[in-house]
């Protein structure tokens, strides 16, 4: 038996490494709803959205999760959010992939997009819309999120080597971040400084 184990240890067989997959789900930032002439897919970010998207990019960067891939809904508000987040990671906008299946789709359609991601990518950012995004978070993790707000971002880690194995409840929620949380923390910090 000892000889067999020694032979196995010295063999050229590939050693299986446990690689986790991490999906960061981001809801697009606040959009401009005032223009009646624009179709829904054409709505741009408003001033608040333009401010919050890069802030959330900085928050995501603080977790030291660098995306191997960013996939966005083709909606103007989602794509601009993806671009502003990518900029915080020094990722060029032409590296962002748009997928029409991320535009106002159901949880099952969003899940299908993720399950078809090439396994060479381990950390993927998805920029999409509610209610599908919130439904997907609640499906993948055991946590229950009532509503992912605009610019909200959640990371879910799955103990798998392949995206196709994502399924109900097999994800672990790593963090849930949103702009209001960071505005409140900044206000508290300013209050402490002002005293």
Mind explaining what this structure looks like?
The chain is an alpha/beta fold. The chain is 36% helix and 16% strand. The chain has a six-stranded mixed sheet. Helix 2 crosses helix 3 and helix 4 (107-115) crosses helix 5. The longest helix is centred in the first third of the chain and has 16 residues, at 47-62. It starts with a helix and ends with a helix.
Question: Quick summary of this structure?
Answer:
Helices cover 36% and strands 16% of the residues.
Write a concise keyword list for the protein shown above.
195 residues; alpha/beta; 6-stranded mixed sheet; 6 helices; 6 strands; globular
Number of helices: 6
Order of strands in the sheet with most strands: 3-2-4-1-5-6
Contiguous uncertain segments of 5+ residues: 1-11
Please outline the major beta sheet.
6 strands, mixed
Radius of gyration: 20 Å
Overall geometry comes to: globular
Question: What's the helix-strand series?
Answer: HEHEHEHEHEEH
**Structural class per helix/strand content?**
alpha/beta
Oligomer: single chain
User: What portion of residues is helical?
Assistant: 25-40%
Number of strands: 6
Q: Hey, roughly how much beta strand do the residues contain?
A: 15-25%
Mean pLDDT: 88
First-to-last CA distance: 71 Å
Write the layout of secondary structure elements.
Elements: H1 2-9, E1 21-27, H2 47-62, E2 69-72, H3 76-88, E3 97-98, H4 107-115, E4 123-128, H5 132-140, E5 153-158, E6 171-177, H6 179-194
Helix pairs in contact: 2-3, 4-5
């Amino acid at each position: 038996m000892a000889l067999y184990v020694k032979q196995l240890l010295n063999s050229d067989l590939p050693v299986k490494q446990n690689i986790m997959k991490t999906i960061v789900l981001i809801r697009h930032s606040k959009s401009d709803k005032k223009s009646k002439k624009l179709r829904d897919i054409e709505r741009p970010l408003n001033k608040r959205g333009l401010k919050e998207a890069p802030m959330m990019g900085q928050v995501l960067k603080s977790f030291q999760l660098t995306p191997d891939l960013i996939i966005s809904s083709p909606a103007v508000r989602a794509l601009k959010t993806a671009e502003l987040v990518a900029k915080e990671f020094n990722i060029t906008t032409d590296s962002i992939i748009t997928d029409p299946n991320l535009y106002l789709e159901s949880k099952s359609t969003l899940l299908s997009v993720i399950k078809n991601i090439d396994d060479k990518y381990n950390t993927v950012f998805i920029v999409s819309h509610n209610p599908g995004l919130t439904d997907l978070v609640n499906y993948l993790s055991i946590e229950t999120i009532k509503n992912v707000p605009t610019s909200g971002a959640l990371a879910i880690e799955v103990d798998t080597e392949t995206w196709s194995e994502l399924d109900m409840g097999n994800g672990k929620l790593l963090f849930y971040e949103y702009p209001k949380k960071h505005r409140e923390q900044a206000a508290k910090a300013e209050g402490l400084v002002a005293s």
